[in-house]
Amino acid sequence: MIAEISVVPVGAGESVSRYVAEVLKVIRSRNLKYELSSMGTSVELDNYLELGELLQEIDDRLVEMGVGRVYMVVKIDSRVKGGSIEQKKESVMEKL
């Protein structure tokens, strides 16, 4: 499964890069494959349980940093045959 996660620390001001960096530290600590983009982070996960645990840890970390409200948008691509972030991009590029 691939999930794209966009995290917004509400009330943190205009620049949120330090919070995004903390989100990436959480993802890295779990040894998950990910790709950062300008609008979110795509992460490869095994199942919904793993996704839920990741989201909880992200929320906990931001709250520890003093964020009073965390807004997250999650998009999920779950395929029976699996797939990776690279495979999805390569499939599109082949068709160009």
CATH class (first level) name:
Alpha Beta
**CA-CA gap between termini:** 25 Å
- Report the count of strand segments: 4
Mean pLDDT: 95
CATH architecture: 2-Layer Sandwich
Q: Taking strands numbered 1, 2, ... along the chain, how are they ordered across the largest sheet?
A: 2-3-1-4
Strand count, sense and barrel status of the largest sheet are: 4 strands, antiparallel
Strand content: 25-35%
Q: How much is the radius of gyration in Å? A: 14 Å
Helix/strand-derived category reads alpha+beta
Helix content: 40-55%
Overall domain count: 1
Which of globular, elongated, flat, extended, rod-shaped describes the shape?
globular
- CATH topology call: Alpha-Beta Plaits
Number of helices: 3
Order of helices and strands: EHEEHEH
Question: Could you name the ranges where pLDDT drops below 50 across 5 or more consecutive residues?
Answer: none
Overview of this protein structure:
- It is a single chain.
- With 96 residues, this protein is an alpha+beta fold.
- It has one domain (2-95): Alpha-Beta Plaits.
- It has helices spanning 17-29, 48-64, 85-95; strands spanning 2-10, 34-36, 41-44, 69-77.
- Strands 2-3-1-4 form a 4-stranded antiparallel sheet, covered by helices on one side.
- Helix 1 (17-29) crosses helix 2.
- The longest helix has 17 residues, at 48-64.
- It starts with a strand and ends with a helix.
- The model has no long low-confidence stretch (mean pLDDT 95).
- Belongs to the UPF0045 family.
- Residues 3-92 form the Thiamine-binding protein domain.
- It holds the Pfam family Thiamine_BP.
- This is MTH1187 family thiamine-binding protein.
